[in-house]
């Protein structure tokens, strides 16, 4: 259908023409969409304050298996002492470790507004089956600055290998991790020098001054190893400062392995510190006179938050990607899609032939949308609620990622879109608004038309401020979807670029 209008016309990036009659029409442009598997993504918290970290195993039938592990430094308090005060010459103090464990609170929400029970959020896979979790001491020194250029911030990627120092610190190897919303209370038995139980403490986490307990995972550690690494070193130079400690104890590796189980997202940046992961040491000092007479019992707890530098590592099984009309977009270090909007440059002059053709028509671009349809016969268990587009190209043998203009120019009205759309309750498509980008491309002398990349959305994808054109490809969203490309036999589900334009009569 061709429509005619006599209204003033304004086009961003083009001239303004008023009081002139126009014909308005639209075209659908054939595009090329390909699978673009990833080897790695940036997954540290140095260049941007990431809070969400994945831990566990996610093994969907039609996508890549993911084993997600976490590496983190520990924060200390200086001046730590096992025994805080001096006693007489005829007394001795016996220190007994009661328990040592890693505490990781779950992200939760109330079942409903009147309920007092939480449900665990952000769990993927089969939460009824366990994955293996082992805790190691890291032997990789973390430098926040790039060793090759100390003026630049360092960066770590999801495939970085962190060296382990010794055997696992678990109390028993291959801890069987299953998320459990009922893990809200931990009883701690306080023991005297002779192993008799003196008292029992109860650990629970509450929020907002309520009596509602937040569930938390607890991974028991080897008490003798932790005593040797921590308590026995408290008054040494290794604990004299955070920097000294970071060099001595370079961090923990929480390593998840297996072929089944679940993947859980944890928040490491809660404003309420009790909700942040930590290494907890509970111990009792028994003050004895003449070797057997108990003068005093002192109960202590030292907490070491998993703080400072952190990184997610993703071990992903390679899969053979389809070569037909199927496009897989999977978060973390899975796969993106590479999109060529205007096809080939057959005359080799540096600009796509389709762009040259459209430029000769002197169109004024009203609207441009890119639509990709979902193949709902594939696994849609965890469908991304949003996908994201960005530009990617090579410059001086480096990959440069940048924002599409609409992500910045239309930020106040939703940017480029990309939200999941449903039809009669069924997942259907994703639509991207790229009017400014296409308008500039078709109405300028610039021949720069890089490929676009399509990924699972993360909150850090959007520009950080009004003039921010740099795209930073973090990804901790493990969701995945299968899309149709441009060659599917179903013409109603082809990936398509639709351009609406006006032309002077």
UniProtKB/TrEMBL annotation:
UniProt organism field: Polaribacter porphyrae
Protein name, UniProt field: DUF4270 domain-containing protein
Lineage: Bacteria, Pseudomonadati, Bacteroidota, Flavobacteriia, Flavobacteriales
């Amino acid at each position: 259908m061709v429509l005619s209008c006599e209204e003033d016309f304004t086009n961003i990036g083009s001239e303004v023409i008023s009081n002139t009659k126009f014909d308005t029409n639209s075209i659908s442009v054939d595009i090329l969409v390909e699978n673009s598997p990833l080897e790695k993504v940036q997954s540290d918290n140095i260049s941007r304050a990431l809070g969400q970290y994945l831990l566990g195993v996610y093994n969907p039938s039609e996508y890549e298996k993911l084993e997600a592990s976490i590496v983190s430094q520990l924060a200390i308090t200086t001046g730590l002492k096992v025994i805080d005060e001096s006693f007489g010459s005829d007394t001795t103090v016996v220190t007994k470790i009661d328990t040592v464990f890693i505490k990781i609170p779950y992200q939760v929400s109330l079942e409903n507004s009147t309920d007092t029970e939480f449900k665990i959020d952000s769990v993927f896979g089969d939460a009824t089956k366990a994955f293996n979790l082992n805790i190691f001491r890291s032997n990789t020194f973390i430098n926040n600055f790039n060793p090759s250029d100390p003026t630049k911030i360092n960066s770590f990627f999801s495939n970085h290998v962190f060296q382990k120092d010794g055997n696992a610190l678990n109390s028993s190897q291959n801890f069987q991790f299953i998320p459990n919303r009922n893990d809200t209370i931990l009883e701690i038995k306080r023991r005297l020098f002779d192993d008799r139980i003196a008292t029992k403490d109860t650990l629970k986490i509450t929020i907002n001054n309520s009596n509602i307990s937040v569930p938390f995972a607890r991974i028991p550690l080897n008490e003798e190893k932790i005593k040797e690494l921590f308590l026995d070193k408290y008054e040494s130079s290794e604990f004299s400062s955070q920097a000294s400690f970071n060099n001595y104890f370079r961090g923990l590796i929480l390593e998840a392995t297996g072929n089944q189980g679940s993947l859980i997202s944890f928040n490491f940046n809660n404003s309420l510190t009790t909700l942040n992961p930590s290494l907890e040491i509970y111990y009792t000092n028994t003050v004895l006179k003449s070797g057997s007479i108990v003068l005093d019992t002192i109960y202590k707890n030292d907490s070491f938050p998993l703080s400072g530098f952190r990184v997610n590592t993703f071990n992903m099984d390679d899969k053979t990607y389809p070569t037909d009309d199927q496009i897989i977009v999977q978060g973390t270090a899975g796969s993106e899609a590479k999109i060529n909007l205007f096809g080939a440059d057959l005359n080799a002059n540096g600009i796509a032939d389709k762009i040259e053709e459209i430029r000769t028509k002197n169109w004024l671009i009203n609207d441009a949308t890119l639509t990709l349809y979902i193949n709902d016969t594939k696994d849609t268990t965890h469908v991304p609620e949003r996908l994201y587009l960005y530009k990617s190209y090579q410059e001086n043998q480096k990959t440069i990622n940048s924002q599409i203009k609409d992500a910045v120019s239309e930020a106040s009205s939703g940017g480029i879109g990309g939200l999941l759309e449903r039809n009669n309750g069924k997942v259907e498509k994703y639509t991207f608004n790229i009017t400014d980008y296409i308008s500039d491309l078709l109405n300028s002398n610039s021949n720069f038309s890089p490929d676009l990349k399509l990924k699972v959305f993360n909150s850090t994808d959007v520009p950080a401020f009004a003039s921010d054109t740099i795209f930073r490809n973090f990804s901790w969203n493990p969701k995945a979807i299968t899309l149709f490309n441009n060659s599917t036999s179903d013409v109603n589900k082809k990936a398509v670029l639709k351009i609406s334009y006006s032309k002077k009569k």
